[in-house]
Amino acid sequence: MNKELPANLHRILIFGNGGTGKTWLARKLATLLERPIIHLDDLRWAPGYYGIARDNQLVANEVVDAAKADIWLMEGVYGWLANVVLNRATSLVWIDLPEDECIANVRTRGIQGGESEEAFEELIKWIGEYRLRNNSTCHAAHARLFGAFDGPKIILTNRAEIGSYLESLNHRIPGDITGE
């Protein structure tokens, strides 16, 4: 059963470059808030095959349907998908780490579900170009997304800020959630 939460924690959208720790933070928050996570990667890519994109309209429709719930925690890099649920979010978290840290995180994580070594190296290159790209997954697009949101929002730019954010929520949520 979900804890009684402040209204701004009902529907949280987390976004940022690949390798920032969006999934890690989402897992921590899911435990803290007692809810499932909607991973945009799971909707975007064919099951078990990162790199094989599903139909954009189908994915967008699934994201909109998921966002109709009263509470959710959604995370991903896709600005175009974040935009379709921005009006339903009650708070926004942008993890904006330096690209070299993101690359190191992804190298530590390693190859994922069905990804080839070549695709992995392309991902590393793509992550390194976050501030250079010009699409819905680039830094500028994420900045626009952040700027367009009128509700509670935060930019986390290092691991200490991420830890402080989690700790601040610990003090706002009823019950003990520190049980690690």
What is this structure's SSE topology?
Elements lengths: L10 E6 L5 H12 L3 E3 H5 E2 L2 E5 L2 H11 L5 E5 L2 H7 L5 E5 L3 H11 L7 H12 L10 H10 L4 E4 L2 H12 L10
Parallel strand pairs: 1-5, 1-6, 2-5, 6-7
Antiparallel strand pairs: 3-4
Helix pairs in contact: 1-8
Summarize this structure as a short list of keywords or feature phrases:
single chain; 180 residues; alpha/beta; Rossmann fold; five-stranded parallel sheet; two-stranded antiparallel sheet; globular; disordered C terminus
Description of the structure:
The protein has helices spanning 22-33, 40-44, 56-66, 79-85, 99-109, 117-128, 139-148, 159-170, and strands at residues 11-16, 37-39, 45-46, 49-53, 72-76, 91-95, 153-156. It has a 5-stranded parallel β-sheet, with helices on both faces. The chain has a single domain (7-170), classed as Rossmann fold, CATH 3.40.50.300. The model is unreliable at 176-180 (pLDDT under 50). With 180 residues, the protein is an alpha/beta fold. The radius of gyration is 16 Å and the shape is globular. α1 runs parallel beside α8 (159-170).
In short:
With 180 residues, this protein is α/β, with parallel strands linked by helices.
Mean pLDDT: 89
Order of helices and strands: EHEHEEHEHEHHHEH
> What is the CATH architecture term?
3-Layer(aba) Sandwich
CATH class: Alpha Beta
Tell me the distance between the termini.
19 Å
Here the CATH topology equals Rossmann fold
Percent in helix:
40-55%
